[in-house]
Amino acid sequence: MSATIIDGKAFAAKVREQVATHVARLKDEHGITPGLAVVLVGEDPASEVYVRNKGKQTLEVGMNSFEHKLPADTSEADLLALIDQLNADPAVHGILVQLPLPGHLNSDLVINAIDPAKDVDGFHISNVGLLGTGQKCMVPCTPLGCLMMLREQHGKLSGLNAVVVGRSNIVGKPMAQLLLGDSCTVTIAHSRTKDLAEVCRRADILVAAVGRPEMIPGDWVKPGATVIDVGINRIPAPEKGEGKHRLVGDVEFASAAEVAGAITPVPGGVGPMTIACLLANTVTACCRANGLPEPEGLTA
Ligand code: GUN
Question: Is the pLDDT of residue 192 over 80?
Fold first, then answer.
């Protein structure tokens, strides 16, 4: 194995430390405690785990955490009323509505009801438009985490060929916009791309966000490239015992690590960065709401 393994767990801990320092300063110098509200509708077990982790890490960096757990049959009107209340609450600087929502609720309508200045997910249509036009906005957490890791690895990204495999609104598209903002030459590829292997082989930066286990083998990776694997796929692992599973990314790690210059593992790569960036976005939103300087290195 020749690649440098990018330690997302350690990097995320560093980001959380920076957030905690900034939170302490906001408290000491301005008497302001940043607050993050997380809304969970229903009882999806995976979502409950995410929400619990978010709440725990929010408190650990010294911020206020407001959890709103609503029953699965909550009406759209009731959910929108809660969002209005959080929009108007000066103690709440960030609002996150955990997705997916139960089927009877219109996610777009709900997300777009959040005050864009408090939209720490960066999913509101105003933030999407601002990002697309290179303006100051709230940036989706996972792509922001990937960008931070790439900047740490490369310094300047200007002029590099970046290939993003995956075109989701949450990762692929905003990732491409961020890389373009850092002056990369960006290609968005996806499952229908012709000669996907060849496209990937041109990448100095390869971001895999397709959600297909180990779809990208090592011989699609340009020697020395930086590979960011956003995929988190749970696959059967009979070698660990009957009914056991293991987590793999969208990249075939072992073969890619032979060729790449640097690569994120799964687990322990991009995953831990997402919540760290959510905390970073909450501090950023709090600073902007109060007309205070933003933390350096925690924004796009
Ligand atoms: N569900 C899984 N990931 C996310 C995320 O990043 N934000 C929200 N709101 N819901 C999610």
Answer: yes
CA of 54 to the centre of ligand 1 (A): 11
One domain for residues 102 and 223: no
Mean pLDDT of the region 19-43: 98
Q: What's the pLDDT score for residue 142?
A: 98
Q: Is the CB of 96 under 6 A from ligand 1?
A: yes
Probe target for ligand 1 pocket from 39, 170, 270, with the most ligand atoms within 8 Å of CB: 170
281 pocket-lining for ligand 1 (C-beta < 6 Å) = no
What is the distance between the alpha carbons of residues 40 and 55, in angstroms, rounded to a whole number?
A: 12
Please give the distance, rounded to the nearest whole angstrom, from the Cα atom of residue 288 to the centre of ligand 1: 23
Same domain, 80 and 164: no
The partner residues of 35 in beta bridges, in order of sequence, read 64
Asked if residue 20 is part of any domain, the answer here is no
277 lines ligand 1 (CB under 6 A): no
What is the arithmetic mean of pLDDT over 276-285? 98
Q: What is the pLDDT of residue 47?
A: 95
Report DSSP letters for 268-296, one per residue. Answer: SSSHHHHHHHHHHHHHHHHHHHTT-PPPT
Say if CB 183 and CB 158 are below 8 A apart: yes
In a domain, 260, yes or no: yes
Give me the number of domains the chain comprises.
2
Q: Are 277 and 18 in contact (CB under 8 A)?
A: no
Residue 216 CB–ligand 1 contact under 6 Å: no
- Write out the residue range of the structural domain in which residue 220 sits: 141-272
Residue 1 has pLDDT above 70, yes or no: no
Whether 77 and 153 map to the same domain: the answer is: no
